[in-house]
Amino acid sequence: MKFYCVVDKTKGWHTFSLLENSVKARSISWVPIEAKEIDVSTLVNVEIEPGDILYRLGSDDELKFAEALLMRDYMTSFYRNPNDVFARSFNWGSTIRMLRAGVAIVPTQFGVAENDDDIMRSVEILGGFPVVIKSSGGSYGSGVRMANSLDELRRQVNELEQNNQRVVLRQFIANARHVRCVVVGDKAVDAIELLPVEGDFRTNATDKPQMRPFARDDKIFALAEKAVKAGVTEFGGVDILISEDGTAYVTEVNFPCHFGWNQMCTGADISGMMTDYLVSKAKQVLQTHTH
After folding, report:
1. What number is the average pLDDT over the span 136-140?
2. Up-side HSE of residue 7: CA atoms within 13 Å toward CB?
3. pLDDT tens across 230-278, in order?
4. Roughly how many angstroms between the first and final C-alpha of the chain, as a whole number?
5. CA-CA distance, 282 to 277, in Å (whole number)?
6. Which of 48, 146, 192, 228 is the S-S candidate for 183 at Cβ 3.0 to 4.6 Å?
C-alpha cells in the first residue's frame, strides 16, 4: 500500500509534515508528488496498485492537474467516486450544491447585476449595506471585501473581476463568531474558533490567525457534516459563522483544508484520523480486488 500525496511544499509545510508522520507511523509507503516540479506527462504511466491512496494537499491548478492524472478507478481517496476528481467544473458550484441540499449558507446573491436598481434589490434582499463581496478562489481573505454604498460596491466588484473571478454578494453578519470544523469520513471530529483581527472584519485575513478550541456543539457539528455530505468528498474544513442570536451559516467547505490549524490548536490527531479512514477504505478496495 502506497500513500501518494500531491503537494507544493513551499506552502503549508506543517500540514504536510503532520500527514507524512501519521502515514509513516503506520508503516505505509509515503510517496510525495511535487506537482510544480515533476514532469506531469509521466503521471499517467505511474503503476498504481489496488488499495493505493491519493490525497492532494493544496489547491493550485498544478496540483489539481497532477491529482487528476494520477487518479485510477481502483485508487482510494476522500472522493466519494474516483470520477468526482473532475466534478468541480465552475466557480461557486459547491456552494450551489449546498444550497440545493438545504444547507444553511450565508445569504448570498450569485452574481452582480449591471443595472443599479437591480443591484440595490440584491442589497435589500441581503438586509442592506454593508454587504460582503466575495470572489471565488483566494485564501486568507484575499478575495473578500466590504461595501457600504453603491459606488463602493461597484468599485470593489470591478477590482475583483479584473482577475476573471466570479463575484457574489453576501449578507454581512455583524460580530459573528467564525468556527472552522473539520469533517473526516463525513463525521465532524474537531473545531476551532478563529478570533477577530483588529481593524478587519475578516477573521482569516492573515496566514497566522489567532484561534482557540471550540467546544463540541452538536448543532454546529451536524451542520458541518451536512455541508460536507452535500459535496463530492468525505473530508473537508467547514467555515461557519455564528450570529449574535446564535444562527449558524456555512460560508464554504474547503477541500483540501488546512487541518493543521485545528491539530496544533486542540491536539486532536486529525492527520491520524485521516490516515486511518483512508487505510480502512483502501482495505475494502483490496478485498474487492482479491475476491
Report:
1. 62
2. 22
3. 999 999 999 999 999 999 999 999 999 999 999 999 999 999 999 999 9
4. 18
5. 9
6. 228
The 8-class DSSP code of residue 196 comes to P
Element (H, E) at 56: strand 53-57
> 238 near 250, Cβ under 8 Å?
yes
* Cβ-based neighbours of 188, under 8 Å, separated by 6 or more: 181, 182, 220, 221, 222, 224, 225, 238
Closest listed residue to residue 234, CA positions, set 188, 270, 283: 188
Tracing cell 472584519 back to the chain, one arrives at 201
Pairing mode of beta strands 53-57, 187-194:
unpaired
pLDDT tens string 72-93: 999 999 999 999 998 766 778 8
Grid cell 515533476 — which residue? 38
Write out the E strands in 85-209: 108-110, 131-135, 144-147, 167-171, 177-184, 187-194
Among 67, 53, 43, 66, CA closest to 19: 53
- Say what percent of the chain tops pLDDT 90: 77
Please check whether residue 45 is in contact with residue 39, taking contact to mean a CB–CB distance below 8 angstroms. Answer: no
Cell numbers standing for residue 55: 490525497
Q: How many residues does the chain have?
A: 291
DSSP 8-class letter at 195: P
CA atoms within 13 A on the CB side of 71: 19
Contact 289, 210 (CB under 8 A): no
Q: What percent of the chain has pLDDT over 70?
A: 94
If one counts every other C-beta atom within 10 angstroms of the C-beta of residue 172, the result is 19
Secondary structure of residue 105 in the 3-state scheme: strand
Mind listing the pLDDT tens digit for each residue in 13-30? 789 999 999 999 999 999
CB-CB contact of 249 with 240 (8 Å): yes
pTM of the predicted model, to two decimals? 0.93
